Amino acid sequence: MPRLRKAIAVPTAIVASAALAVTTGPAALAGSGSDAAELPNELADSIKLGEVNRHLTAFQRIAATSDGDRASGTEGYDRSAEYVAGKLSDAGFIVSRQEFPFVYFETLAEELASGGEDYEINIMRYSPSTPEGGLSAPTVAVPESDEPGCEVGAYDGVDADGKIALIQRGACTFAAKQEAATEAGAVAAVVYNNGEGPLHGTLGAPSGTGIPIGGVSDSAGAELVAAAGEEATLDLRAITEERTTYNVVAETRTGATDNVVMAGAHLDSVVEGAGVNDNGTGSAALLQTALEMGSQPDVNNAVRFAWWGAEEVGLVGSTHYVQSLSFEEQLDIAMYLNFDMVGSPNGGHFVYDGDGDEFEQPGPPGSEAIERSFVDRLSEQDVASEPSELNMRSDYAEFMAQGIPVGGLFTGAEGTKTEEQADKWGGQAGEAYDPCYHTECDHIGNVNRGILMDNVAAIAFVVGSYGLSTEDVNGLAAGESASHTERAQQRAVQLRSTKQDRAGSAHTEPAVS
């Protein structure tokens, strides 16, 4: 059982934007006097495992000395954020810290028993708690359909009053399933997976008067449904309270600021562990890419790196960031690249399905080009990849919702590796890509460093390439974008020129008409 931590107050000085004066940092790759076109390859070749692993070690030790985790709203997260921010400030980046409120959630109990069997269950984030000691009630199966348990009408002919509803995953949000089950009179809900493996989920926000809700695997669901009507005991309890945390954002001092290449990774862990794969790997890969690129690289487009807070409790930090931007500021972002778990121990090489060919959910226009860029780069590294669904489970979600092209890499979480994938990538078929997903064992030993470095090379190359040109994504070739600063400078020159022309005209003869 996790220990209860007190809320960590974020000092005002920490949250304020960093000074914009240029600080001393490592020289940018492909800088003055070098061929800028070589930046992507130089960047990919420059990143070494020892440097990336050092960041992972830092995250592990921060967690080990901060109650065992790096969850947002705790000392472990704040120390992780300042580790990242300090490295970037020392390297000369423009660094800012964006504070935001969120609802902290910490699990206290997750138990389900029925028919003499104990089942693994995961409380949905923001679920209300059962009474201490749990509740007991008969189970009732909600009929499987195209929209299972999504509306109260799904309970027609089903007596759910005072019972624990068993609902198949799919077609709607967990919050919608909870609302319908509550309206039908159920005292709790258990959602079972519609694919292999355990089920983790979130309601997105505290549910007020809703019932407790948790998730189980497909196999557990099949057994529970087969025995529907039996008495079950359910104990789901958690702490839910308001806290504050912050994002860390760093931008290069070179490149057009109205055609920004943005790349991000969530920095927070769950409260159950250190989160070294989820998402220390993405955070470390992004940090070392930024440090190797340097704060003043020879690029045409500014590159903005972000480390998000409170991803694990509903994508709160990235959503807050995007929604805090004006429409014009959103237009300045050419694309968003997301890196969430890029070193899973039994992982695979997944690229977000930007064109929707595999999962019928494409990203905004331009996303298909980003997918091709990652697929092609991995192929050049002799790495075969597969598409990964844009299922809105990571920090690209709000960027995608606002029409910003998205893409990125992923190596798998609770899903199960197939025989075909094991033949292609190695590892163990029939086991989870990350058996320690959202658990205490997601520590420094829970990383496949070969997979991680394959991905780091691809991340560095693609980020560097788009720093030079985003033509395949939005049609802007190298040098075709003028930043706000450049336009302001051009306007000032034009105004001065106009004033000089007017001053000169007072001393010349008028033109003959």
From TrEMBL:
<feature type="domain" description="PA">
    <location>
        <begin position="136"/>
        <end position="224"/>
    </location>
</feature>
<feature type="domain" description="Peptidase M28">
    <location>
        <begin position="247"/>
        <end position="459"/>
    </location>
</feature>
<dbReference type="Pfam" id="PF04389">
    <property type="entry name" value="Peptidase_M28"/>
</dbReference>
<dbReference type="Pfam" id="PF02225">
    <property type="entry name" value="PA"/>
</dbReference>
<keyword id="KW-0732">Signal</keyword>
<dbReference type="InterPro" id="IPR045175">
    <property type="entry name" value="M28_fam"/>
</dbReference>
<feature type="signal peptide">
    <location>
        <begin position="1"/>
        <end position="21"/>
    </location>
</feature>
<dbReference type="InterPro" id="IPR007484">
    <property type="entry name" value="Peptidase_M28"/>
</dbReference>
<protein>
    <submittedName>
        <fullName>M28 family peptidase</fullName>
    </submittedName>
</protein>
<dbReference type="InterPro" id="IPR046450">
    <property type="entry name" value="PA_dom_sf"/>
</dbReference>
<dbReference type="InterPro" id="IPR003137">
    <property type="entry name" value="PA_domain"/>
</dbReference>
<feature type="region of interest" description="Disordered">
    <location>
        <begin position="479"/>
        <end position="513"/>
    </location>
</feature>
<dbReference type="GO" id="GO:0006508">
    <property type="term" value="P:proteolysis"/>
</dbReference>
<dbReference type="GO" id="GO:0008235">
    <property type="term" value="F:metalloexopeptidase activity"/>
</dbReference>
